[in-house]
Amino acid sequence: MSTALSTVLELAWFTRPTCVVAADLIGKVICRQLTDSDGSEKVLRMRISETEAYIGQDDPACHSHAGSRTARTEIMYEQSGVFYVYLTYGVHHMLNLVSGSVESPESVLIRAGFLTDDSDRLIDEQQLSPNKQLTHPKQFAGPGKLTKRLQITRDLYGKPISPDSGVWVEDDGCQPPVSVRPRIGIDYAGDAKDWLLRYIWTDHPSLSKNW
C-alpha cells in the first residue's frame, strides 16, 4: 500500500505522548483508499499540515474532560491507534487519531493538509474548475473540509489506523518546520483555549488559519 520510499505507521506509533504524536504527524501522509466512478481503486494521499492535541480528563476542551465517559468517548479510553470520528454542528465530521496509553482518553485532531504530488486523482474531481480540484492548497484547509474531500464518516469510528480500514498514515521522511499556536474554536474551555496545542507546518498555504 505504501510507496517505495514510505512506511506505514504501526499502531504502536500512536501510543506515545499525545503532544509528541500531534507534532510528529506534521509532514506525515494520510492515505485514503476509495473506489472511483469507473470502479477502479484509487488512493488519495494528503500530507498533514495542521493538528491539534486533546490531552484527556484535565483538558477542558477534550470530550473526556472530568471523566466524561460516554458511549461516544468510550473509544478514547481503549487502545491508541484507532479512529475517533464525530459529527459537529450536525454537518462536519472530525477526524481524530486516538493516542497515548490505555485509560488515558486523548486524541489528535487532523485540521489541514494538502494533496501530495504522487497522489491518485478522482475522475470527477479533475473535471472541476482549478480552484475546486484537490490540488488547490485550500481544498483540505480545515477539519470539515478534509473529511469531506477524503470521504471520511463515522463509519471509521473505532477502526484501526491501518490499510485494513481504508485509511492509514505513512512516513516518507518529510520533516517540515513546525510551530505551535493556540487551538481554534474552543472559547468555552477557559484558560485551555490559550494552550499551545495546535501544531502547524510553519507558514504553509494549506493551513486553516495563518496565525
Structure write-up:
There is one protein chain. The protein is mostly beta strands. Helix content is 9%, strand content 28%. The chain has 3 helices and 9 strands, in the order βαββαβββαβββ. It has helices at 18-24, 74-77, 143-149; strands at 7-8, 29-35, 41-54, 83-88, 92-99, 106-115, 167-171, 178-181, 198-201. Strands 1, 2, 3, 4, 5, 6, 7, 8 and 9 form a 9-stranded antiparallel beta sheet that branches. The longest helix is centred in the N-terminal third of the chain and has 7 residues, at 18-24. The chain is globular, with a radius of gyration of 16 Å. The model has no long low-confidence stretch (mean pLDDT 93).
Q: Tags for this entry?
A:
single chain, 211 residues, mainly beta, 3 helices, 9-stranded antiparallel sheet
Strand fraction: 25-35%
Specify the helix fraction band. Answer: under 10%
Give the CA-based shape: globular
Radius of gyration: 16 Å
Q: Kindly name the structural category.
A: mainly beta
List the helices and strands and how they pair.
Blueprint: E1 7-8, H1 18-24, E2 29-35, E3 41-54, H2 74-77, E4 83-88, E5 92-99, E6 106-115, H3 143-149, E7 167-171, E8 178-181, E9 198-201
Antiparallel strand pairs: 1-7, 2-3, 2-7, 3-6, 3-9, 4-5, 5-6, 8-9
